[in-house]
Amino acid sequence: MTETSTRTPRRSLGGQRRVSEKLILVSLFVCGAISIATTIGIIYELGKESLLFFQDPQVSFWEYITGTIWQPQAGSFGIWPLILGTMLITVIALTVAIPIGLASAIYLSEYASPRVRGFFKPALEVLVGIPTVVFGFFAVTFMTPILRDIFGADVVGFFNVLSAGIVVGILIIPLVSSLSEDALSAVPDSLRQAAYGLGASKLEVSLRVVVPAALSGIAAGIVIAMSRAVGETMVVTLASGAAPRNFVLGQDPWSYILSPFEFGQAMTGYIVITASGDLSYNTIDYNSIFAIGLTLFLMTLGLNSLSRRIVDRYRQEYE
Amino acid sequence: MTHETQAPVTKQEEPATKVDETTAEGMPAPEAPGVIQTVGMDIYYGDFKAVHDVSLNFAFNEISALIGPSGCGKSTVLRSLNRMNDLIPTARTDGEVFYHGENIYGEGVDAVEVRRRIGMVFQKPNPFPKTIYQNILWGAKINGFKGSKSDADALVQDALEQAALWEEVKDKVNESGLSLSGGQQQRLCIARAIATKPDVVLMDEPCSALDPIATLRIEELMLQLKENYSIIIVTHNMQQAARVSDKTAFFNVELNTKGQRTGELVEFSPTEKLFTSPDRKETEDYITGRFG
User: Fold this and answer.
1) How far is B129 from chain A (nearest CA, A)?
2) What pLDDT does A315 receive?
3) Which of B80, B87, B188 to mutate: most A Cβ within 10 Å?
4) Contacts of B186 in chain A (CB under 8 A)
5) CB A194 to CB B126 under 8 A?
6) N or C: which end of chain B has fewer CB within 10 A?
7) Which of B113, B178, B193 sits opposite A198 (nearest CB)?
8) What is the pLDDT of residues B217-275, one digit of tens each?
9) How far is A96 from chain B (nearest CA, A)?
10) Which helix (H) or strand (E) holds A21?
């Protein structure tokens, strides 16, 4: 060290390059920070406006988180009818999307030849590119009439959560399938070989080795698809009705409360309808959409961190 | 199992008619058919011929080693003995492979059924991400095992004992197989293979990912297993072949006119003979380290 320091350096040790590298580093950091700043901004805005809503003398926080009637005109602000709409639609959507998405993921990852995969994957991804408003019309003009034919027009309402749920399910199939396929493809081939070596058939290898080994990734994918379903807006706005399904526990039967055939506005649907109406700023209706938005945000945030936790906790370590 | 099973006589004579410079020599004339016999086996990947005309007779309850330089097709040969090569879409095997006298490439033979009888241990330990107990039972279960809990316990213990792993894991059979050391994982894989009750175990460089001590344990284990199983092992390590095997097959690579490298069987002899006085010059050059 001492020796080198006594030598005359061949060129200056101070450099321009370091400065430009620093600049690049800073600009990369700024780009990364933008999304975080946006998130913080959203939380701030939602929180501020929600506070206005909860400060309103007509609103009690307790009623908001426990009430089962949402009727702003009558001063009833119970969130549960809207959560119910969202949850029914989400459950129906997952019932549709999990089996189909998972089956197509297994097919693509384990069975399809490269040629078939080359056709199938882009075809599935086309579904992602279709605007959701188109799916909304698909629900109203195609799915709902079919359901009314099958179950009877007197049973199935024109606006119903089943139609919205099925179509939201179709909408999130590519999400379930592509995330699951990633997880399945990440299972090392040595495990498949081991299973084949023990005399397993292709189906046994797929269902009893590959799927269990990929389960954490599949579960995380399902949770992400679930938060997508919770946040889906256009389909539910168009197909599941413009009124929340208010109910009184103990009075309304569960067959009505949980019926897939009845209308049931979702949280997103309410926000869209209310925000697009001619409401003036700082009315209670207007402020309520921020409270609902905040609730929705917390729900999807919870789901996404749940998915992250599943992945971290159950990630299999293969050397 | 019956040791008297006869391979069709005509098939056995076939190699004799094809003898040329590259076919194995020095087999004592009328040899009893072993547990696995290959007759004039050629293996292709698409148009590429990977292995040319391999005729081998693997004896019961012996350890047979396949050695040779990289790319000589020894692993390819091994994997065609239980039809693992079928999993590679372009792979094709011509010729015949008799297992207890039945051609496993014959019509109507189910490759899955073949693999149930002929176990396999791989280069890298590959336990399932399940408990040790479930790892052992997995193969047995898909093979139709429906015993009670105590039958299952007995099966797991027996397989682990045979694989010389029981003493080390008996208190933690419900822990993940992946929590074991590399050498233990490989013995777990051996236990898993023998839990399906095969009579042949194929091993594809089973020690190449292990340290010398773990390697030694696996070798001791192979010598024990030989009493009940016939073992065919591919190894890069000539000393290993010399230490454990009864017979050794040496494969070499031939460059054909198209510049493709095709593997060929040079010599299949009792191990001691192959390493002390091989019949063929190439064998001697290889084992004395002149190439490879």
Assistant:
1) 7
2) 63
3) B87
4) none
5) yes
6) N
7) B193
8) 999 999 999 999 999 999 988 999 999 999 999 999 888 777 778 999 999 999 999 99
9) 29
10) helix A16-55
What is the value of pTM for the model shown? Answer: 0.81
Chain A to chain B Cβ contacts (< 8 Å): 71
Residue B28 has a pLDDT of 47
| pLDDT recorded at residue A316 | 56
Q: Does domain B9-287 have CATH number 3.40.50.2300?
A: no
Q: Report the distance separating Cα A101 and Cα A180, nearest Å.
A: 8
Rounded CA-CA distance B28/A219 in Å is 61
Which carries the bigger pLDDT value, residue A282 or residue B115?
Answer: B115
Partner-chain residue, chosen from B117, B126, B139, that has the shortest CB–CB distance to A190? B126
Q: How many domains would you assign to chain A? A: 1
Distances (CA, A) of A222 to A227, A229, A303: 9, 10, 10
- Report strand pairing: B200-204 vs B230-234: parallel
Cβ–Cβ of B196/A199 closer than 8 Å?
Answer: yes
| β-strand partners of A36 | none
Cα nearest neighbour of A113 on chain B: B89
Stretch 182-201 of chain B: residues touching chain A, C-beta under 8 Å: 189, 192-193, 196
Query: pLDDT tens across B4-18, in order?
Result: 444 444 444 444 444
Residue A108 within any structural domain of the chain: yes
Q: Chain A residues with CB inside 8 Å of B119's CB?
A: 197-198
Per-residue pLDDT of B28-76, as tens digits, reads 445 678 899 999 999 999 888 899 899 999 999 999 999 999 888 899 9
Sign of the four-CA dihedral A252, A253, A255, A257: positive
pLDDT tens-digit readout, A166-180: 999 999 999 999 999
Residue of B nearest to A189 (CA): B126
Contacts of A190 in chain B (CB under 8 A): 122, 124, 126
DSSP A86-113: HHHHHHHHHHHHHHHHHHHHHIIIII--
Chain B CB contacts of A211 under 8 Å are: none
**A194/B178 CB distance under 8 A:** no
Average pLDDT, chain A: 89
Residue B126 to residue A208, Cβ atoms within 8 A:
no
**Residue A172: CATH number of its domain:** 1.10.3720.10
Confidence of residue B21 (pLDDT cuts 50, 70, 90): very low
Chain segment B140-195, per-residue pLDDT in tens: 888 888 889 999 999 999 999 999 899 999 999 999 999 999 999 999 999 999 99
For residue B18, the model assigns a pLDDT of 41
For A190, the closest of B82, B115, B124 (CB atoms) is B124
Looking up tokens 């309520």, which residue turns up?
A: A288
Residue boundaries of the structural domains of chain B = 9-287
Is the pLDDT assigned to residue B114 strictly greater than 50?
yes
Structural domain boundaries enclosing A225? 61-314
List of residues 6+ apart from B154 with CB closer than 8 A = none
Instruction: Report the residue of chain A nearest B82, measured CA to CA.
Output: A197
Q: How far apart (Å, rounded) are the C-alpha atoms in residues B208 and A297?
A: 53
Q: Which positions in chain B touch A316 (Cβ < 8 Å)? A: 129, 178
Residue A110 is assigned to a structural domain of this protein: yes
A19 against A232, higher pLDDT: A232
Q: How far are the Cα atoms of A108, B81, B121 from residue B35, in angstroms, in the given order?
A: 39, 11, 18
Name the token pair of A162.
């089943």
d(CA B53, CA B55): 6
